[in-house]
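Hi! If you just cloned this repository, the fastest way to understand the data is to look at a raw example. We've pasted two of them here, unedited. The first protein comes first, obviously.
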Amino acid sequence: MPNKKSIPEIMPLTGLRGVAAWWVVLYHFHLYFHPLVPTWFSDFIARGYLAVDLFFILSGFVLFLNYARFFEQLTLDGFRKFMVARFARIYPLHLTVCLIFLVNPLAIHLFSSDGVIGGRYDPTYYVAMIFLVQNWGWSETLAWNIPAWSISTEWFAYLVFPFLVLLVQGCLRSKRFLVPAIVAIALVIYLLFWSFGTDSIGQNIQKYGLVRCVIQFALGMVACKFFLVTRHWTIKLWPVYLAGFAATVLMTVFLDLPDFMLLPAGFVMLILGLSDPRLIWPRLFNNPVFVYLGVISYSTYLFHYFVKDWVKFLLIPDDGQAGWGVILVYLAAVFVSSVILYHLIEKPGRSFVRKIRFRRTAAVQE
């Protein structure tokens, strides 16, 4: 069980989050990269949807690390504080981006000769997106800000997080159960998506995205529990983690295995291997560039699709061919907009919500 002392941020994991965000950025432009880059790099970009699965596991890991100690007993006050903290973290930027996306159907109406408003810009879906419930299983499509589907499922995971904490803490009191639990959850992921009849964990997001998120979120929580009881051994275990991660990647690629068979367990080993900053190889992700990309990664992830829409609208011809100039404009615009949104919206918005909550609490106490 985590102690009551504050646990310092694990900076290599912040850097990993930045790398994962940019993997998604590249993925959503991979059709334009394909003719310009080597096949191996094109294949890597085309699997960028897996960064979302890494996000889910990493999110469960980090939230368990920081908040599990507050749910030794489930109380309404503790639940409220947790949800306010998560709301402050994700909603101000989400709402801002939702409002910005209204520009798209307006532009279609004003400037496109063959564009039809509807479909991707369905008003019902927009309302659901505002309330972060658009990917809770009721919709048959993804629309508007496509990547926001995962924010919707994460919001659901936040709602059940305290109960998952009680389940993990209650059922896994002995550390000898932790590795079997990780293996069992990874096996359940494989069996679930095999039973769904999908070839990839990234298929049919509108139907299976919520399950995909919550079960991998829980996997990250159990992995964190394992980390907390074995962190003094990490310096000895890191070769095992690194070899395990490499093995899952190589077997998936060269044996053409389904991505949901081994990679969730592989991502767990990657996270565990990066969780001790004393080691040499986590320093690759602990450098200032990757850490800053991690700090602004939520802005990057949430806004890059809007940038993609407009780069495609303004700069890509009808034949769908984009040169390096267009690609560099896309990447630069994503980075600059991420920096601006983080410093002008995301960070101040988070502080604003928390201040409001603090003032209300103080007023009640008075």
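Ok, and the second one:
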Amino acid sequence: MDHDVVMPRFADVLAPGGRLVVVDDDVGYPPLWKKDLIAIIERHSPVNPSAFKDLFGDLQRRGLFERHGFLRTTVAPFEQSVEDFIRALQSTSSLSRVTLGERTDAFAAEVRALFARLGITRIALPVAAMVVWGRPLRP
């Protein structure tokens, strides 16, 4: 998504006094496999994972967003199969089938191999949600 294009468009169509609200997950990947997973993502995705670390801070610095609030929910345990975990990763813009193209199957195979090597068949993670709201701006 090109934020220089979409944020001004959001600003134009948002009702007076309205807010853009974004909900994102905040997942605590275990140290046992976090670095290996990030390395796999970096090998396959054309999008640098560090680009997502402080998206709204970056949008504020660029004059594209005025943050009005932030909330982080309490952490809850969550568990899913390796296949569901892979599908969840592939539901993100940086790892979608459209984005990865021919690399899609190789990406999934590497993630499967990582967990197989560790004897992991189910992924148990602490998860929370982050909610950010504010006004998109036209610089």
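That's it. A detail worth noticing about the second one: The chain has a mean pLDDT of 92.
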